[in-house]
Structures are given as structure tokens and as C-alpha cells.
Amino acid sequence: MCACVVAAAFGAASRKIVVTDPPGDVTGPVDLTRVSLQRVPDGRLRAVLRFADKVTPKTLLASSGPPGSVCVRIWTAADADPKAMRPDRLVCATARSEDELRGGVYEATGPALPKRLDDASVKFSASRQIMVLRFAQSALGRPERLQFAAESTLPGCERPSCIDTAPDSGRVRVLRLR
């Protein structure tokens, strides 16, 4: 009986944390307007990202320079200070081709390129304005709580002005997992 209660508590959905961002604060189709993050009943985490315009895998491809991306930045340490340190996990979607996206969970430590830890599923709504990322909570190391923000980067651009963050001004939101 006890194992059933623990399993039910572990798989319970968490409260959805929502971040809004004004449309038009960056130019281009990867302008974030709303982001939510929650644990769903199957134990995975689900991030839902809404854009001001239609986004497709082709939108994220670059003819030169770095590809575009959409990422949820995550700080898992209890004492993390997002204003002073980089996130230790990234959950990102990039274009694999003109028709397909690739999602992944990455560990970001120091100046080296992030290390891929796990896959993340990526799906679009029929309108192509909403992207859903689903990923295993275990890829984050099972923290009690995490801090998060989202960002989208225009393809081919390396300037900070090509990045849209939600929430703005380096702020983050907290999601309690236990």
C-alpha cells in the first residue's frame, strides 16, 4: 500500500508556472509571448512555448552562422543565483532539417560546449505558434525545485539583440517538484 502512495505522489502533476512576455520585443518569428513549465502525471516535465508568429523547423535553419534555437534554461542547485551564473541544464529544440526538429537535454558546465544528457520530444500545435517540449525529470538530477527561464535565438545571428528571453531582464521563475 505504501509503495502505491509514493508512486502516486511521485507521478502527480505539479502546478503550472506561467511566464508572459510582450510580443514585438524582438523582430522575427521566434518572438516568445508565453512559456509554461510543469510536471505532468507521467512524471516528465512539459514546457509549452508560444510565439508571436508561426514557427517551423525551417524557421530555425541558418544559411550561415549558428542555427536558431528555442531553449528552457534551468538552474537546479538550491543555492543557484541566475543573475550571477549560467544555467546548469538546457532543454533545447533546434532544426535537424527543413521539416524536422531535434530536442535534447544538456548539461552546461563551464566554458565547454554543453553535454547531451537525454532526448526531449518536440511537437508543434496545428497553428505552429506553440511548441511543446517534454523531457524526463531524471535528466535534471531530481532537484526539489528548479529555477527556469526561456530563450529563443534567431538563426545566423550571434548578437545578444537576437535573443528573446522570457521573462525579461534576467528574471526567472521557480517550479517546485517535491
Q: Describe it for me?
A:
- The chain has 178 residues and is mostly beta strands.
- 8% of the residues lie in helices and 40% in strands.
- Strands 4, 5, 6, 7, 10, 11 and 12 form a seven-stranded antiparallel β-sheet that branches.
- It is globular, with a radius of gyration of 16 Å.
**Any idea what the radius of gyration is?**
16 Å
Low-confidence stretches: 1-10
Which fold name is given in CATH as the topology?
A: Immunoglobulin-like
| First-to-last CA distance | 20 Å
Using the 3D structure, state the CATH architecture.
Sandwich
**Total beta strands:** 12
Q: What is the helical fraction, as a range of percent?
A: under 10%
Q: How many domains is the backbone divided into?
A: 1
What is the CATH domain class? Mainly Beta
Please write the string of helix (H) and strand (E) elements: HEEEHEEEEEEEEE
The number of helical runs is 2
How much beta, percentage-wise?
35-45%
> Structural class, from secondary structure content?
mainly beta
Q: Shape from CA axes?
A: globular
Mean pLDDT equals 90
Major sheet characteristics: 7 strands, antiparallel
SSE arrangement:
Layout: H1 2-11, E1 17-20, E2 32-39, E3 45-51, H2 57-60, E4 69-75, E5 89-95, E6 101-107, E7 115-119, E8 121-124, E9 130-135, E10 145-153, E11 163-166, E12 173-176
Antiparallel strand pairs: 1-2, 2-3, 3-9, 4-5, 4-10, 5-6, 6-7, 8-9, 10-11, 10-12
